[in-house]
Structures are given as structure tokens and as C-alpha cells.
Amino acid sequence: MTPQIGYGGDYNPEQWPREVWDDDYAALKLAGINTVTVGVFAWAHLQPAEDRYDFSTLDAIVARATAEGMRIVLATPSGAMPPWLAHKYPEACRVDFEGRRHVYGQRHNACPSSPDFRRLSVAMAGRLAERYGDNPAVVAWHVGNEYGGACWCPRCGEAFREWLGERYGSLDRLNDAWNTTFWSHTFTDWAEIQPPNMLSEHWRGPDHTAFQGITLDYKRFMSDALLGGFVAEKAAIREHSAHTPVTTNMMGLYQPIDYHRWAPHLDFASWDNYPPEDPSASRTAARMALAHRLMRGLRDGEPFWVMEQTPSVTASRNVNSVKRPGVLRLWSWQSVAHGADAVLYFQLRQSRGACEKYHGAVLDHAGRTDTRVFREVSEVGSEFARVGDAVLGARTPARVALLVDWDSWWAVEMSDGPNRNVRYMDVLTAYHRTLWQANASLDVVPVTADLSGYDVVVAPLLHMVKGDLAERVTAFVDAGGTFVTTALSGRVDEDDNAFLTDVPGPFASLLGLRVEETDAQQPDVVNPVTLFGTEYEGRHVFEVVIPDDAEVLGTYGADFYAGTPAVTRAARGRGSAWYVATLLDDAGVATVVRKALDEHGLVGPLADVPDVEVTERVSPDGTRHLFVLNHGEARTVECPVGGTNLLDGRALRAGDKVDLPPAAVLVIRQDQ
Amino acid sequence: MTPQIGYGGDYNPEQWPREVWDDDYAALKLAGINTVTVGVFAWAHLQPAEDRYDFSTLDAIVARATAEGMRIVLATPSGAMPPWLAHKYPEACRVDFEGRRHVYGQRHNACPSSPDFRRLSVAMAGRLAERYGDNPAVVAWHVGNEYGGACWCPRCGEAFREWLGERYGSLDRLNDAWNTTFWSHTFTDWAEIQPPNMLSEHWRGPDHTAFQGITLDYKRFMSDALLGGFVAEKAAIREHSAHTPVTTNMMGLYQPIDYHRWAPHLDFASWDNYPPEDPSASRTAARMALAHRLMRGLRDGEPFWVMEQTPSVTASRNVNSVKRPGVLRLWSWQSVAHGADAVLYFQLRQSRGACEKYHGAVLDHAGRTDTRVFREVSEVGSEFARVGDAVLGARTPARVALLVDWDSWWAVEMSDGPNRNVRYMDVLTAYHRTLWQANASLDVVPVTADLSGYDVVVAPLLHMVKGDLAERVTAFVDAGGTFVTTALSGRVDEDDNAFLTDVPGPFASLLGLRVEETDAQQPDVVNPVTLFGTEYEGRHVFEVVIPDDAEVLGTYGADFYAGTPAVTRAARGRGSAWYVATLLDDAGVATVVRKALDEHGLVGPLADVPDVEVTERVSPDGTRHLFVLNHGEARTVECPVGGTNLLDGRALRAGDKVDLPPAAVLVIRQDQ
Amino acid sequence: MTPQIGYGGDYNPEQWPREVWDDDYAALKLAGINTVTVGVFAWAHLQPAEDRYDFSTLDAIVARATAEGMRIVLATPSGAMPPWLAHKYPEACRVDFEGRRHVYGQRHNACPSSPDFRRLSVAMAGRLAERYGDNPAVVAWHVGNEYGGACWCPRCGEAFREWLGERYGSLDRLNDAWNTTFWSHTFTDWAEIQPPNMLSEHWRGPDHTAFQGITLDYKRFMSDALLGGFVAEKAAIREHSAHTPVTTNMMGLYQPIDYHRWAPHLDFASWDNYPPEDPSASRTAARMALAHRLMRGLRDGEPFWVMEQTPSVTASRNVNSVKRPGVLRLWSWQSVAHGADAVLYFQLRQSRGACEKYHGAVLDHAGRTDTRVFREVSEVGSEFARVGDAVLGARTPARVALLVDWDSWWAVEMSDGPNRNVRYMDVLTAYHRTLWQANASLDVVPVTADLSGYDVVVAPLLHMVKGDLAERVTAFVDAGGTFVTTALSGRVDEDDNAFLTDVPGPFASLLGLRVEETDAQQPDVVNPVTLFGTEYEGRHVFEVVIPDDAEVLGTYGADFYAGTPAVTRAARGRGSAWYVATLLDDAGVATVVRKALDEHGLVGPLADVPDVEVTERVSPDGTRHLFVLNHGEARTVECPVGGTNLLDGRALRAGDKVDLPPAAVLVIRQDQ
């Protein structure tokens, strides 16, 4: 196989008669497809009963795909258990947040603590690896599917207590972490601890808990418990397939699982790109860029895969619009622009029945190849072929980091007070959008990342401060870095207990201020913030700041704290530390972030052309490719570099006027 | 008893001391009441313990009603079980959609699969028939009450599996019907099949299912299971009462039960008319007309009964407004105008306590006969008496048919994709409203109806195409008929699996087009559709149509499919087939429907007078009565026919100017 | 201890290391704190296992507080059970309205019918009383905490049946009370009766029940069941502490518990003042005033305590704003102005973790005493010290009564029909607001109160008429009183069964009218009511009134009942009876209420100065203190009395111009 961008998607020939397979391959070749993901959800097919396996169909599927020259992504089927399993082992089904034991149905339905499910899923993974592990067409293992959800069954309760035992060692330490003297919760026996749900600590739903510490630990535990299934299947695969990389398809900005805890166990990252509908194309583009960067950041910048995207429509939304002409191509290239080495679809042939029968596919129910969708799929396939292996393995250098922390995400959204309308992802995406529009060279990394390679670190809602983070941030600033953080940062320690010091806790001295009060208001209440002479809108939370030696850059315009600081900057060592004490509107955020980037000259190319995205990938041999993507209206821009647009072979000089129609894509191999 | 329109209502003397009975009959006579429904919900009274019956009060009630010359509708009490039954047989209570076993409470609360409930309810029906079956005053049997709801208990699970066994014969066929290779659902043992609810295939509620086929079959099964109770009680009645007709009070446009599956088992149709509050009087009127027609269509056009309506207010709504002056009379006559031979109230005397104590009644808590409500009830009674038997048994000839299909209703609303904001009844009522305003001679019939007697067939959202429907529609068009259908029609087969052909499946060739894509948009997004030179609004779904030989009559005005077909018409044989590829606004629907009616000269009288409804009933002897009802403002109209208004004895010539004040009613016996 | 207004709050030193205690007392002294509430939620600390008690920490806490000269409010810890209790006795946990047994979590979580919980909580109360009952620093016992919620477990079912047995004596009487002939509900065995919840009589939630009588009785039962726990703990305390008063912290306008049933068992009333956020400061002030008056009315006008208020923010709301400068002082004085002899905070030191870690406190996480909040707390402390014992024990004479009735509150909100948008508290607060703005001398009392001491009685939504109420109201009017009531009054008897007479039942003849119909409309529908020449807005319900000898003062302007009475007044004996047949807007309510007050010259001082509240307390020796509180903008007013403002020592003559800045407070000791 010639190395080239992976292109293909989920393929379930076991759902179709053999004559359809011939049509499929004829069409897929037309479309430039080179990769098929097989075996997802095929468990009932592969193992019709606990004591009976039947690989005959999968053998034929793999043989045919191999014969057709496809690269095969081979999935373990554990994303959906077969009916016989649930029937024989009812405790393999989950207990939900309401405390109800489920019976058989849907998918992603297995309790991660069920020994029977574990045994059977791992056995299946091992058998698949044993049977297909030495087929060189198998280029990757795809374990399970979109891990997610949670279980609150008694067995998970037991596993939770074991997990807590390992984490805390003693009940005294656990009682301290959870602050159980509050409301008479001191646990005197491990057995007293219950999974936190609507029958115990919660009311009104998953975000309302009496004991944040218990719920936080359950989220951590459940993320680990699900990971346990992945790790066990991977180990079974490794017994027969020593080198083929193993991944699972993640879901980008997905709150329930801490992908940073998963990252070390993946051989490469992959994810499913289904952005929520948003009337703003550039907001959607920026959101996808954030997810791509988060996924890339899991494995320290290594290329990742887009394991799924839809060629046309989704089916699971209330309203499912079709991708407009050119959008499929634009988004496919955006994936590559951010570091994807493969872009796959769900799915190659449209389902006949059940809840995804209207989900888009490369081939529709009639199997036509003369549709708009098929034509656009083929165009992308043809461009990927043209570009060949040019960007494979290339990485994206970055001098700016955006910190993401699942613990802070969880903690800030389940906090009682000050304001439940503050949503972590709203604030994160607002700060990211301005970095995206600035075309800054950006990594999205965990709080444990080494900050020393960056010049600017942006950390909105860094609510929880764990380990040596404050020390590392301080060192980063001392060494010349610019640090930007916001309201509600520095509030709690790893156990979600308040720091018994001035707010913002370990950042107070770095930022040169203390927060005396935190006001909160309804979403329609605006407090105007004047910043560098311009007025912006602050909303939701308004911290009353007592500056120490921080410079006051912006002030509130209203309420009893009018005239007090809303934005500050403290010079520290060779660097600076910015604080934004309220949630600013987009323009306000942009002003702060641009100033921070300016301190290091890190505003990127075409930053002032709305909706035009520019990224770079640098190959191991030093070749640089610049991607220019237009998510908005037609624009004419100056080419930021000299080189050759690989998509049309045209030579471009830096400064050349280039027309960018809507959905335009340039892939410029830069002159050395 | 002189034959005359049945007039009366639910009457529960067992809830009142005997002295009240005297007052009741004095008042009811004043009001012209001739019919009483007794025994509804009287189970605890009739059978205070499993081994003890007590008919003494009912004997007295029946004797008194008989003595007063009333016609008696005798109800079986199975609509609400007594406390002792639930206490002794807890499994007679239902398990709800959340999987919770209910205990005693409310009504309509019995599991249809409970053998104990079945045994006891059937025994009761038999005893009632044995005791009162030869009383000639008993003119009808009323089994249970407003059958509805559903149960998801283990016994229903068993019954479901039996039902499936009969339907499919083999698991292979069932797996194919449900497309179970998707998500590893292949069933290998009947016992693995679970009732679909929140503990199995559903999330977010009854409309969101992972497997449409399973949920669809459960709806069919539950409709049949409830019917099973009716059929068993009817059989017990028939052992002692060979000829008295048996019915149950249905609920019109009621989604959970497929009344077309029930119709063959009813001796006549009857229903309860409680239209939802709607600020538009004519929308309400049209909605009631649709329900009347649907009920009339159950038994091939035979007269039906309105078993319940409120004389003034409901109590179960959040906001319960009183019927405005004249409305009771107008709606009562509307019932007759559409084929009712009886119009009854819930209830004759207002309840003293519990959840219907504020529900309206002919007699209020004080028993007054000098209230507005009592006066209006009496006026109707007096008019019914005046009209006598003139329209009894008369039928309504129709050349236009509107197709209603519960399977399509269920399927389109539980579909994942393209748009959950599409509600079957919204679209059906929109198409019906324009037929109603056109005063077309209209039947509302199932998809199995013989179409050969119609000139125009309108079939909105005919999502599912079952049996030989496509062939029959094609034959209808070939023979000169006009067929009108819409977006989302022709999508799935009887199992809710997509047709593996061009959309709209078996209608594609008849309509002369294929649908390549289906776009969906939020409710506030409009795509203007230009049709015969006028612009209308399309919403929700926008199918991208590739016409074959269909004539393009309307086109989209916006988006990437601007200029492509939105409304088409294909000439076929001697007829034509229309397709509306989006959901048009009312004016757009009216334009299409009027054109279709015009092809056959079927626009009815006074079609251009807003809110004036005209219907006709033709007696077996050929006498024709025209009903003219004004649901809007005062109008002066030209009398469409010559004849005599039975309500005031006035002679009218065709073309005479007639003043129609608000709520006016004419019942014109037409000159021969 | 010098007698003085109690000032302090909840204090949990057991949650902190000893060194923090020193800081606490140093700070609390600075702030003028003289009272600490200890022991709330300390159960797990005091009794780490069923067979092990440990009072060592509480001993130290009490000793230290005593040594510091604090008055101690000693709490029993039964508001939150320890984990071991729930683990050992799972049936001590509640079953919720959905029928789910809860496991350990949160607080206020014990089943009131659990014998184990009862035994253990009572034993604990007894031990505390035994140990600390003779400490003279202990000035009050505080049993449990914010009693509330409910349980629907089988044991509560049993207890409910026993309670019913005592209430009704026989099933016949119960069947009559519940009107069980409706829907076949006749109970033939006590064991058939189920707690009413989502598994029995309810749908859509707690307000929707098939049998109002059952649900109403369950509310009464549950209020009594919770009271049973209080009474039992109090009895255990009394064995060792004969004279120290016992209370519990109530919650003001709290629907689930009928505080009038509790009142006789309290030695003094106390409550927690957390008004819901309302953008209108004066609405909030009036609402708090209503709650203060309701609490004062529990014990016939005796002084009460504010047991909790927040010094700054809450944490449990979605949006938690800080109290603006001056508000803490204003509201603290408002409490005193309405009869509070103590004003306490939750809490003295801010929690470190769990769901109240962001709830405000006198001392924040850093323990600072230089914050705005601490300064304001200290200012109040200093003013309380200045005023000393001047108003302690003083009472508030009143000639106007507002009737509050939990049964009516419950009944009207769970009624099916006429309008679920009618909320008891909305109407009550609307009538109260105008009495509040009028600075009328007002009591808020139960329907059982002696009315003979009042001149005006206002009774909105007096839905249920119990006992001899109608007779007492009639006697009150005959004797010269003015009675004002509204739509939906006089509808049902004590069992929630309709009166079988004209509406409004026993008030019809007093009011000189009957209500023939009750129309209801959506919230946006207005029917204009012309009253004394001015037009006001009526909404929600519109009763059609047939006047007998009542004078018509206001009429509807629209709909078919335009021109008919909307407001009437009947002269009776030496008094008058007003009826408002719709829900008027605030201005309309004010017009009616002012007229009624005017009949007796009871409009109070400064009634026409918006947002300025005036109340009076009269000491046993006859000294009168007038409180003037400005909840709005700056105003200059004429001093209504001569005297001395205790807060600044300034002498004031009646008629003096006094500037009232926002949040101004005057406490004027009146010249004799």
C-alpha cells in the first residue's frame, strides 16, 4: 500500500448480502477509499452463543477487503453486547443514575465492573487478535466504540470502594478529602460508602450533589473503570498482535471521560467528529479545531485519526441538516490541517433499519454513485490521493498553550455557588475562539504538561489547582511567559476543598491581588467593563478584586464595585500574569488574548481576516505545509508564505493576492 | 321511545342519595335528556369483594331510568378496578414506561395481560349482561372506558413474545424485520426479547428508541392487548345479550391506539369529544371535524355516537375555560352534521369530590336549572326533539378521501432523523383544515380502504407503505384519480425498514421523481416556495428532488437547492400524482389542495366564506340534509340549496341571502 | 449576660482544628456576636457507632463558648443521620415520591416513621439534655434542622393508615370524605390504602392527583409525622431540662409543613430567612415581612427568632448574588422590627468543602476581618449592643389580620380545574404587599384565630372552609368588621369536597351573591376591570357573579360576561363583606385593600412613600418603638412620631423632615 492519508470508514458487510459487496467495492474504489473499519458491533454475529464462535463471515469480509487492497481497521465488538449475554448475565447491564437496573437494549450498555462482561469481551478481543493479528492489511485495532456513560450498580459500588481504598489508604484521609464532618457524613466503615446518584447524594440531576468530593471521585473512578475495559482488551490483543497500534474512537469535547487519564494507554488518538449544529459556521469550525487540538494534545502532538464523520447528515439530532456543498471537503482538510493522518466516515453504506437508517453514508439506500454526496466524497478522495504522503507524520509546532482540565470542568459545573450558568466549555471555547481567529500556533494540553516550551499559557476557569501546578506556572512566568487566567480559578485543591487562604489561592501572589467577594447575576445582567478605553460586557460572575501590586487594566462600570478592577496584569520576573475577574464577551476576551499574544509576537497570519483559519504541519524532514481554510464568505487575502498549493499545483509567492471562495482550501508546501 | 337523536350523558346515581335522584329526573326532563349512561366506574359498588356481588343499587338505577323512559347505555365497570382487586392481585396493576410497578390508584390502571383482571372483568361483564341484557331500555353496551395507556410488565413481555411468535413465525424473520444485525441485536432465543422502555431500548422518552421496529411492534401489540380485553368482555356480553350493540368510548385523534385495528370489533363507533384549547375557533372546529370523520370512517361511514362532551368546562387542563354562549349548541350540531346519531355529556350531575369535581355538568353542585349552562343544554335538547328522527341513520357521501395511518403516525414520530419537530398530526390537520374550509365531501379512511370510489386522495406523511397500497394508489390514479402526498412519504416498509431503492420508494415512479437528499432546519428557518406565482413558506424538511417526468409546479427560493422542485405533478393514465417536498404553510397547502379538488370540481359550497362549515347527510330514503355551521364572525351568505331549515321551519331558496350570526346553525332539509 | 438582642449564628468548631477556635473568638468578639448555635449536624461526631458516644469535642466547644460568655443554642443533630445508621437500618432512609428507596446521602433524609431512627434520635436528644441541660449558658434547644420533605415508604403507609383510623374512625366515613364512589375507589379494608405518589394516585408530579382527599390527608399526616419526631425529642429533653425553651428552625412560607399544626409544640418560633432572588427590593422586603408576621402569628404574637440568615451569599441557588452594601443591616433590623428578639447567621465560619463551601459566612476561608462583609456584620453587632434590651419582649399590636391556611394552600394548588396557574402564595403575597405598603398594623394568623380583636380581615383564596369559620367571619362582620375575600374562596369543606350549594358555599349569603360560572384563561389574557372609575387588569380566573344584594363596585370589561360584577361589597350588620371575583393586578388589589382599610382608618404612617416600611413594637411597660426602614431610593419623609432614634441618639419631632438614604433604618423610641 502506498502511504497516504487514510480514507474510508465504518463498513458492515455482515448486514448485507454478498451481491451488495461487489457493488460496494466498485463504488468505494471510485471514491478513492483506501481504509475500512470492520467488526464494530458484530458481536452477536461472531459469537451467537457463549460457547459458539463463528468467524466465517468476518473471515470473508477481511479476505475481501485485503484482496481489494484496503487497509483494515479491525474493531472489537464490545461496544454492544449480544442479547444472549444480557439474558444470561443480567448484572452485565448497567444501573442508571436513577438507580434502575437496565435490561437489554441500545449499545454502550455494559457495566464496566461486571466480571462476566469483562471475561467475555476480553476473550473476544483475544480471539480476534489471534485470528487476524498477523494480517498485514490490519493497520490498527479499534477497541469498543465511543466509550462513555456510567453505571451505578452495587458491583460498581464495590469497585468504587476499592478504588477509594487505593486512592486514600485510610478512611481518615477519605473523610478529610470529602470534608465529611459537614452534615454528619463521617464514614466509619468503607461499606457505608454509596455510589453518588439520585438515591444518595444527588438532587435535580448529575450536577447537583451534596458532596462534591464524592461525586468528583466517582467521575474519576468511572473514567478509570471504563478505561479498565479498554486496557484489558488491549492486553488480550497484545498477546497475539505485538505491534499493530491500538486505539479507540473518542468523542472530542466529551465531559464524562477524562481523556487525559486514558492517553497513556492509547497507541494513537482517534475521535469522532460530529459538531453540534450552530448557525455560525466559524463557531463550529473553531469548536472542531479545539477538539482536534485536544485530541492531538493527548499524545504530545502526535498525528491522530478522525475515526468518524458523516458524509452528509446525522440522525440523532432533533434537527439534522445536510452538509452544504463544499463543507465535507473543507472539514476533511481541516482535520488534516490540525494533525489527522486519516479521515474516515460513519458510514460507507447506509443502514437499512433502526435508529441510524437516516444517518448519512457514502452510499445511500439505493446505492447510487451519482449523488452530490458521493461526488463530494470522491473529490476529497481524489485530493487526498494527489497529496499522497506529503503531510503524513507531520507535527504542528506551537508556542501557545491552552490548558484543559477535566477535574476543573467537573468541579466548576457541579459547584453549589456562585453561578450554575457558568459552563466550562462555554468559557473554554470563548477563549479558544479568539486564539483560533488569531491563527496562533496553539496546543491544547493538560495541566500536567511541560509549560517550558511555550510563551503564552491561557487557562480559563482553572478552578482546581493540583500538585505543583502553581509552582510550574510561576516558574513559567518568571522565565518570561505570559499567563492568562480568569474568574473562578484557583479556588479548590485536588479534593475540591477550598484553599483556606485568600482567593485565588495558590495564584493570588502570582497575580498580585486577592478576590474578596464573588457576585453572580442572571444571564441578562451586564456589567460593562472598560478595558484600554473600550467598553465590553461582563456577565455571570463578577469578582470584587483587591489589587496588591497588579496593574489595573480594566474596571467595572456598574454596581457597588464600579471602578474596581475587572482585568489586571502583574509583572513577575521576566513575564506577566493576567487576570480576568468576570466572564467577558467575545470582543473583551479577544482584546485580552491578543494583548497577551502581542507580548510575544504570536499573532498568526491572516489573523484579521474573519473566519479564515491557518495552520501548519512540519514533516520530520523539515518540510512545512501551510493550510489555509475559509470558513466564511469569499475573501481575497495575501498569501502568507511562498510555496506550492498541492491541490492545484499552483505556485504562490508570499504577498500574492489569493481569492478564497467560501469553503476554499489551500495546502501550501512552503519553499525552503 | 320515539326514535330521535340520543341526548343525555354519564350518570352515576350510586354516588348520590335517593332524594337527589328525584331532582335529577325532574331537571333532565326539562332539558330534553333521553339517554343515560350508567355503571361506568361502578365496580367497587357492584362487587365489594371478589366473592360478593351487590346489584341492588344498579337494579334501582336501571329500574328508575327505565321507568322514566330513558334509553340506557349500560357500561361495564372495567375502566377502574376496585381497591380489593389491586390488593389481592398486585400484578393486575401496570408497570410503567420507567419500569415501575404501580400500586392502586387512578383509573385505566389494569395490565391487559393480567389473567386475574381478565377473569374478573369478563365475569363482571357477563353478569351484567345476564341481569340486564333483556331489558329493552338498554340500547347499547359500553365496555370499559377510554381504553388507553400501556403496560410494560413481565407478563406483557411474555404476551409480547407470543404475539411476535404469531406475527413472525421465526426468529430469523423477526431479526430481519428489526434489522438486528445493527448494534449486535441478533436474538437467538425468544426469551431475550424485552418490552421496549426506559430500561431497554429507549432514552429521553417514548419517541426515542434505538430500534424503531421493536417499539413499533410493541405499540401494535399493546393496541391489540387492550383490544383483547374489549373483545373478551364483548364475548361475555354476547352470551346473554345477542343483539344489543356493543361499543366503547374512543378518543378521536388518539395516538396510542390504532383504532383501525379495533374497528371490526365494534358494533358502532363512539368517542369523547374534548378538543384541546386553541385560540382559533375554526382550527378547533376543523380538528373536531377531522376526529368525527375519522370515527365515522372506522365503520365505513356508519353513524357514530359522541359518547362524551362537556356542557361547560373541563377540569384536567392546566387552564379550563368555559364554553362561550352558543358553542355548546354549535358543537352538538356539528357532531350530528358529521354523522353522529347521539350526543352525550360527561356528565349529568357534577361530582362532589376528587379530580373531576370542577368538571362541568348539566347540573352543578347546587343542582340549579336556572344557569346559562342548563339553559343551553335545554335549548339543544329542544332542537334535537324538533328535528326528531330526520337525520338518524343518514350517511355522508364523499368523493374525497384523506388517508390516516397509525403505523405512519408512530413511525414518523419515533424516527431518528430527519426532524423530530415534524409531528404527524400537525401535518394531517393542516391538510385537513384546507379540505374542511373547502367544504369538500370528505371521508377520513385507513390506507386499506377501497379508493375506487373517490376522485381525490390526500395522503400527507404517508411514511410507511404497507401491502399493496402503492399498487392500489397507482390504479386509482390510472383510473383518473388525483393523488396528493408529501415529503417523508414512501420511506419505509411495514417493518419500518428503508426501501433499498430511490426515495420515495414504491411511489417514486408514480410521482415521476426521486428525492436525493432530505434537508432539515430549525422551526424558525423558512425556505420560500414559489407556486403558481405566489410565494409560500416551507419549513422543517426540504427534500431535494430530481424530477424524472414530473412537471415542476413550485420551486425553492433559497439555499443551495434554490430553483429545484418543491411541488410537482405527474400525469399518469387518466389521473395525476402530486408531490409536496416540504412542509408548506397553510396557504401553500390550500393552494395545492384546491388545485387538486379543482381537477374534479370538488370544491364544496361556501368554500370561500371563512370559518363556515357545510356538510351533508343523506338518509336511506334519499332525503338530503345540509348542515351550515358558522364557527367565525357574523356573515351573510347565499344559501347553497333550496329547502327548509328544520330548526326554525323557515323555507330557503338556493341563492337566498342568509344571515349567519356567530355560532349559527342551519339544518336544511333539501327540496327533492 | 446582659439581656440584648441575640446575635450570632451556626458554629461548627468540630470541623476545625483547635487553633482556629482562638481566631474565631477573637473575631466574633470584634463583631459583637453573643450567641452561638452548636451541634447542628454533629451526630457522627457525637456517636461514631450505635454503641459508642463521644462528647469530648462538644464538651470542649460548650466549655469554650461558655467561657467566652456566649449564649448557647444547643442543637440536637437529628437533621442528618450518620452513615452507620443508614447502613445498619436501611429502612431509616426515605422512599421518595417516585417510590424509590434512598440510600445514604444528603441530610433531612430520615423516614419519620422509622422506629430505629426515632429511638436513636430521641436517645441522642436525651443524652444531650442530660449532659448540658443545667448549663445556664444554654439558652435554647434547637431540635433537628429545617424539618421538611416527606417519605412514602411502606412503614409510612402503615402509619398513614393508623392516622386515618384515628381521624375517621371508620372506612365508611373515610370513603365519604374521599368521595371514593368516584372511579370505583371504595375501600373495603384499611390495608388497601396506599400512600399517594407517582405509583398510585399521581401523575405529572405532586400537584396532580386523582384523589385530592387522599393527597391532602397525606400532607396532613406527613406534617404530623415529622412533628412526631420533634415532639419525641422535646419530651426527651424535658426529662433533663425542664425550663430551657425548645424550638426548631422553620422556613417561613414553606408549603410542605403546616406550621399552624406545629405551633402549640414550640416554646418559641424561629425561622431561617433566605428570600428568593427577586429583582424588586421592595417585593423581597414585603415577602420577608409576610414570613416574619406568619412566624410571629404562630405563637399569638410572641417575639420569635431569626435562626439563620446569610451575611453575604447563598450557595444553593442557580445564581447567588451578594447582598448589596447596607442590605444586611436593613434586613437584620427588619427582623427586629417585626418581632425578632434574636438574629443569627448561617454561618460564623465558611465551610471548607461540600455543597456549602461557597455559602457566605461571617468569616471567610481566609478568616479575614477586614472584608466588607465582616465590617457590616460588626456594624449590626454594634447597633444591637447600643439598643440593648430596649425592644426585647415587645409585641406588635394589630387591627388588621391576613388569614393563611395551609389546607387551602394545598387544596387550591392540587385542584383539577379551574386553573393551575393560580398559586396560593402569588395571591397571598399580592394582597400582603399592599397591606405592607400601607404600613397597616397587621397580623398574619390561622383561620382558627380569634377575629374579634380585628377591624379588617383579608382572606385571599380561602378555598377551604373548615369548622365554624363561616360563622365566626359572619359574626366579625356583624360586629362591624370588614372582610375581604377573593375568587376561589368558599369552595370546599374540610375533606376537599365541594359544598352542594351555591358558590361560594358558606360565604354566599354573607357576600350577597352567587358565582354561577368560573372562567379561566391563559396567563396572557387580560379582562379589564373597572373599579371606582379606573381600569385594572384581571387575570387567570374570572367568576361570573350573580349578585343578590351585594353592591357592585367593579365590573368586567370584556368577554360574554362584560358588565357583570368583578368586585362587590355587601353591607352586613355594622360591617361589610367584599368580594373580588378575579385575580386583580397589584394596583387593583391595592385599591380594594386601601378602601377596606379606610373603612376603619387603618392606613398606616408613610403609606404613600414607596418602599418605606414602618412597624411598631410595644414593650410590656408600654414603651413604643417605631421602626422606619427604607427598602427603596433615597427619600425625605415627615417623621410620623416624636421620639429618639436609638441608633444615633437624635431627637425627632413628629413632622420633622427626615432624610432616608437607601437602606436607612430608624428605631425611634417614642415620647410618652
Strand content of chain A: 15-25%
CATH topology of the largest domain in chain A: the name is TIM Barrel
Count of extended strands of chain A? 27
CATH class of the largest domain in chain A: Alpha Beta
Return the average pLDDT of chain A rounded to an integer: 98
Alpha-beta content class of chain A: alpha/beta
What is the subunit organization of this protein?
A: homotrimer
The major β-sheet of chain A equals: 11 strands, mixed
The appropriate CATH architecture of the largest domain in chain A is: Alpha-Beta Barrel
Measured on Cα atoms, how large is the radius of gyration of chain A? Answer: 26 Å
Low-confidence stretches of chain A: none
End-to-end Cα distance of chain A, whole Å, is: 29 Å
* Largest two-chain interface: A-B, 57 and 58 residues
Organism (chains A, B, C): Saccharothrix ecbatanensis
GO molecular function, one term (chains A, B, C): beta-galactosidase activity
GO cellular component, one term (chains A, B, C): beta-galactosidase complex
Domain Glycoside hydrolase family 42 N-terminal (chains A, B, C): 10-385
